[in-house]
Amino acid sequence: MSSTTSNAVDDLGQHATVRVVLIAAAAALGGFLFGFDTAVINGAVDAVRGNFGLGAGEIGFAVSCALLGSAVGAWYAGPLADRFGRVRSMQVAALFLAMSALGSGLVGGVGSLVLWRVVGGIGVGMASVIAPTYIAEISPAQVRGRLGSLQQLAIVLGIFAALLSDAWLAGTAGGASQPLWFGLAAWRWMFLVAVVPALTYGSLVLGVPESPRHLVAKGRLTEARQVLRQVLGMTNERALDDKVQDIEQSLHAEYRPRLRDLRGASFGLLPVVWIGILLSVFQQFVGINVIFYYSSTLWHSVGFSEADSFSITVVTSVVNVLVTLVAIALVDRIGRKPLLVIGSAGMAVTLGLMAWCFSQASGSGASLSLPAPWNMVALVAANAYVVFFGLSWGPMVWVLLGEMFPNRIRAIALAVAASAQWLANFAITSSFPKLAEIGLSFAYGLYALFALISLVFVVVAVRETKGIELEDMQS
Fold first, then answer.
1. What is the pLDDT of residues 185-232, one digit of tens each?
2. Quick one: which of 12, 240, 267, 287 is 20 to 30 A from 165 by CA?
3. In Å, how far are 5, 234, 295, 432 from 87, measured between CA atoms?
4. What is the CATH code of the structural domain delimited by 2-472?
5. In b/e form, how buried is each residue of 216-252, taking b as 16+ CB within 10 angstroms?
């Protein structure tokens, strides 16, 4: 990436330097923790359910409770980032995630597990808001989409790492509920290993500079000029002055955004805020996290062995990583909106096919079986669904949320949109075990309907932001 971006220069003299790519990559590691922390529960679901004797509703809440913490973290991340800075807030998120990893791995009851998962969720929610904001604010407009997509790449790599480590730990122990090192069951180690990336992230963000927009908002103009000079390679003093002045005008440095600044004539909020909220909600209502939180249990429930179910889940996460790389290559060429349209259409078709396949299942409960050829068709459709999501709604929503709001309200508007996303994620994740008891065909048919509605929403309401300076975003 660095060989191509280092030659890109915009009209303000901003260079997409190697340094800005490395800084964006370091910040995006918060996305790695985001993906790891939320997906690591996948391999532990059955073991936790059996260990604590949980029913469908209880395991649904145990899996999804972290998302409530994420909504809280996302809600307060914007004000915290505005007050204390983006870098300091990222460090706090890393601390919460490290504490959660230790606590979740050493719990003695389901109540303690819920508590520590919520703590980790707070860290995830903070990272989900601050990292894309920070990346958007230090990136030149002409490559902002690609750098913003690093967040999603980090998320899918985190998901892959979590599922791969789950599979390896379960395989080493002979099952997720079997004892491993120091007499601790494999499912406990699935949580404990997250301490390593959490501490790594916290260490790396110590070395990244503060956002120039935050520095300008605090009146620290000299520091802001230094960051712009070093990070974006801006050597022209006139261009530096113009850029700082543009930021000053758009931010109104003396003013701290409040929730009331989001008010508008469209059902109480500005139209751009509603668009951000609905982007977040639809990203979750298409059911993607059912794949990443429950896929091992899902494939096991329809006749695959535990080992094969773990393997299938890892393969799906690899597909997710590869297609995210494709999205990064396309986002600043094709644009955000066309990719969302392609993704919505593809997901509607593949989810509909999955619903049809699961309607062919026989038996119920532990004896549920998906006969050939429907088991393989469902497997292909599930991976095709992940391809369409990873190409579009996965990375594009985070790119858009990081750049679509006017500077004056960006942090607080992103907090609102991200909180809505986590609440939507909680609704989908906690409801899936109950929906699955009604029927997997019903569950995936519902997600297909939401994918179809999302297609209409994108065509009608979403505005393309490719190549537009953050200072020129309108409400």
1. 888 999 899 898 888 888 888 877 777 777 887 778 777 777 777 776
2. 287
3. 24, 22, 35, 36
4. 1.20.1250.20
5. bbbebbebbbebbeebbbbeeeebbeebbebbbebbe
Joined tokens for residue 109: 């009851």
Q: How far apart are CA 232 and CA 39, in angstroms?
A: 35
Phi then psi dihedrals of residue 117, to 5 deg = -65, -35
DSSP string, 301-351: HTT--HHHHHHHHHHHHHHHHHHHHHHHHHHHHH-HHHHHHHHHHHHHHHH
Q: Global pTM?
A: 0.69
User: For 4-19, b where at least 16 C-beta lie within 10 A, e where not — what string?
Assistant: ebbeeebebbbbbbeb
SS3 218: coil
- How many alpha carbons lie under 13 Å from residue 189 in its C-beta half-sphere? 22
> How sure is the predictor about 16, in pLDDT bands with cuts at 50, 70 and 90?
low
Q: What is the DSSP letter of 194?
A: T
Token representation of residue 46: 């059955």
Mean pLDDT value of segment 16-20: 67
Distance spanning both ends of the chain, measured CA to CA: 32
Total residues belonging to the chain: 475
Distances (CA, A) of 307 to 172, 173, 244: 11, 12, 56
